[in-house]
Amino acid sequence: MKAIIPVAGAGTRLRPFTYSQPKALIPIAGKPMLSYIIEELQEAEVEEFIFIVGYLGDKIIDFVNSTYPQLKSHFVHQIQRDGLAQAVSLCRQYISPSDEIVIVLGDSIIDVDFKEIIQLNKSVLGVKKVDDPSKFGVAEVNPDGTIKSLVEKPLIPKSNLALVGLYIIKETAVLMQCINDLIENNKKTNSEFQLTDALMCMIQKGVELHSYKVENWFDVGQGDILLQTNAQLLKKFARVDATAKVENTIIVEPVSIAANCTIVDSIIGPNVTIGENAIIQKSIIRDTIIGNYTTLVEMTLNNSVIGSDASMKGLSQRLNIGDNTEIDFSK
Fold first, then answer.
1. Is the preceding omega at residue 143 within 30 degrees of 0, hence cis?
2. CB under 8 Å, gap of 24 or more: what pairs does 66-74 form?
3. How confident is the model at residue 225 (pLDDT cuts 50, 70, 90)?
4. Is the sign of the CA dihedral 139, 151, 175, 190 positive or negative?
5. Per-residue b/e over 162-187, b at no fewer than 16 CB within 10 Å?
6. Phi and psi of 19, rounded to 5°?
7. What is the spatial distance between Cα 63 and Cα 100, in angstroms, rounded to a whole number?
8. What is d(CA 83, CA 325) in angstroms, rounded to the nearest whole number?
9. CA distances from residue 171 to 177, 178, 205 in whole angstroms, order as listed
10. DSSP letters spanning 171-225
11. C-alpha–C-alpha distance, residues 98 and 20, integer Å
12. Is the Cβ–Cβ distance between 182 and 204 less than 8 Å?
């Protein structure tokens, strides 16, 4: 089985953080979102990965090559973002008709056992009940769990089951035929070539697609969801690196403190992630993500996201601060 991971989006809803790094590399609970996807698929014995890159794609390539040097990986560039189906079509040079593929969107965290799903030995789409299905691809499911129909962002949804960005496809040749048909005939929905439409084409050709209900799914597209995801994952992945220097400080679990941090005279937590080489002095931090090489002095922060290489002093506030920022409120 081969994995296709689209990570070409610009992440505009997460600016200013995504001005300097791709959304998939934003740290959550101690490591980038993309790491969770790669490592979970590795545990499921997926050995070959195809990354679809675009905005700040060089950073994705450098991260994968440096962090996972043994990974058999390929990179394709989606220069014109024309929908998920068009993105998958760019991977055809690395896919043969007999391959089975798993497609996982690189900007979502899906808490499932990938190995268990793959071993079901059938084509599976991850779904979850949502309050407003009109924002997503929507699946209408038969009583036996097979998918009856799929529609992308319907005005009047026939179901509240949203596609969560997890697709396991065994009939790869049929999928690629359907994608080619969309592109060759310029069949767009909402001005894009939708993977949802290609999957519906597969159903119309007689392919059985099965639904798999996902309990925990985080569509990390905005700051509040980012912090909620961080808090949820810290329950499983909280840790304090052995190289972190923590003095005269109260730690309220769960927290993640990365390597070579210095934290003095502070209260940290709950639900705080701190990146590598950060310095925090005389501060109170809770429900917050802090990037690498950031310095905070005499700060009180709650429900905030602070980028890397930022420097701040003397403030009690809720903030969203991008990378390479220096702010001094003490004057």
1. no
2. 67/35, 68/38, 71/38, 71/42, 72/47, 72/48, 73/48, 73/49, 74/48, 74/49, 74/50
3. confident
4. negative
5. bbbbbbbbbbbebbbebbeebbeeee
6. -70, -30
7. 26
8. 34
9. 10, 11, 11
10. -HHHHHHHHHHHHHTT--BTTB--HHHHHHHHHHTT---EEEE-SEEEE--SHHH
11. 39
12. no
Give the span between the Cα atoms of 132 and 123, in whole angstroms.
Answer: 26
Cα 227 to Cα 29: distance, rounded to the nearest angstrom: 10
pLDDT category, 181, cuts 50, 70, 90? very high
Q: Confirm if 276 and 260 have CB atoms less than 8 A apart.
A: yes
pLDDT tens-digit series, residues 263-321: 999 999 899 999 999 999 999 999 999 988 999 999 999 988 888 888 988 876 666 77
Task: Give the span between the Cα atoms of 16 and 322, in whole angstroms.
Answer: 5
250/301 Cα distance (integer angstroms): 15
Structure token digits, residue 204: 């119309």
Contacts (Cβ under 8 Å, ≥6 apart) of 161: 127, 128, 129, 130, 133, 138, 139, 140, 141, 211, 213
Q: Could you give the C-alpha distances from 266 to 53, 115, 297, in angstroms and in order?
A: 40, 42, 10
Position 222 scores a pLDDT of: 56
- Taking CA atoms, 214 is separated from 35, 109, 111, 156, 294, in Å, by 20, 11, 7, 23, 36
Q: Please answer whether residues 272 and 290 qualify as being in contact, where contact means their C-beta atoms are separated by less than 8 angstroms.
A: yes
